[in-house]
Write a structure and sequence with these properties.
By secondary structure, the chain is mostly helical. About 65% of the residues lie in helices and about 0% in strands. It is globular and about 45 Å long.
């Protein structure tokens, strides 16, 4: 895993560049690391985790690093805008989740570890789908489901960042 010194100014500049480059426009679908906005978001998130880890703040404070900023724009004060903000950040966390899982996988992942990860994915998907069921037909269902995907994926990513398999 690579570690770089990321300052608050560097992090703010990176976020500003992502927005200036049209990151807030509709993102491509999926979480493939070749998709530039998702990779850019992943780098911003990883930078936050690196800079936070060197201070006294918990890594969980990085959850929402993009969405909090994104939600301040007037255009994102709609259900669709809120959903987009959360899904944009979710995609960045998902890139990192896969990156950390694959780094662990290079150390001979056990079948048990794969089962745990698959179970977690199933749990996350069912938990987040609950909002669509609970608020069926309501506008809250979309953005709450997207927020859930972002939050759950971010928490698991943070867990996997420090997880070592089959030492």
């Amino acid at each position: 895993m690579r570690f770089r010194k990321i300052t608050k100014t560097t992090l703010s500049s990176a976020l500003a560049l992502l927005f200036a480059a049209g990151f807030s426009a509709a993102p491509p679908t999926g979480s493939d690391e070749t998709e530039l906005p998702s990779v850019g978001m992943a780098e911003v998130i990883e930078g936050c985790m690196i800079s936070t880890a060197t201070g006294d703040k918990p890594l969980y404070e990085c959850i929402g690093i993009h969405s909090r900023h994104c939600l301040t724009f007037q255009d994102n004060q709609t259900t669709a805008g809120m959903e987009k903000c959360y899904l944009d950040e979710y995609r960045g966390w998902d890139v990192l989740l896969n990156r950390y899982y694959n780094e662990n996988g290079q150390r001979r992942v056990s079948a048990q570890f794969r089962d745990v990860q698959r179970s977690w994915i199933s749990y996350r998907d069912k938990k987040c789908a609950y909002f669509r069921i609970h608020y069926e037909g309501g506008s809250m269902a979309r953005w709450l489901g997207a927020r859930c995907m972002m939050d759950e994926t971010a928490r698991r990513t943070i867990d996997l960042r420090f997880f070592e398999v089959d030492r």
